[in-house]
């Protein structure tokens, strides 16, 4: 089992940037794909981005494409989400998750372990 701890959330204005981090411990980090999801109040959890075990493959939700960048540092057991040009509709709790597989699959059910989440609030 892996433990995931997110950090880096906060309150920003529209147009600002934030970088989220997710530190992993336990289950071998570098063997599995990692993902970021988010959940806004009253809405279902939705996929944001995912990265393969090596970092060589990434996939994004259409709503964040060209604004967000997912990356990972396997030496540090950490995955990042760089968020630029933030919009009020990006406001949500952001969760880091570890996939059951090494390759990128964006389906929520394929992610086995989840962090506790970090709040991102974007004011207009």
Molecular structure report:
With 124 residues, the chain is mostly beta strands. 0% of the residues lie in helices and 52% in strands. It contains no helices and eleven strands. It has strands at 2-7, 10-13, 18-26, 34-39, 46-51, 58-60, 68-73, 78-83, 92-99, 111-114, 118-123. The strands form two sheets. Strands 2, 4, 5, 6, 9, 10 and 11 form a seven-stranded mixed beta sheet that branches. A hairpin with a 4-residue loop joins strand 7 and strand 8. The N and C termini lie far apart (39 Å). 35% of the residues are buried. The model has no long low-confidence stretch (mean pLDDT 95).
Q: How is this fold's topology laid out?
A:
Layout: E1 2-7, E2 10-13, E3 18-26, E4 34-39, E5 46-51, E6 58-60, E7 68-73, E8 78-83, E9 92-99, E10 111-114, E11 118-123
Parallel strand pairs: 2-11
Antiparallel strand pairs: 1-3, 3-8, 4-5, 4-9, 5-6, 7-8, 9-10, 9-11
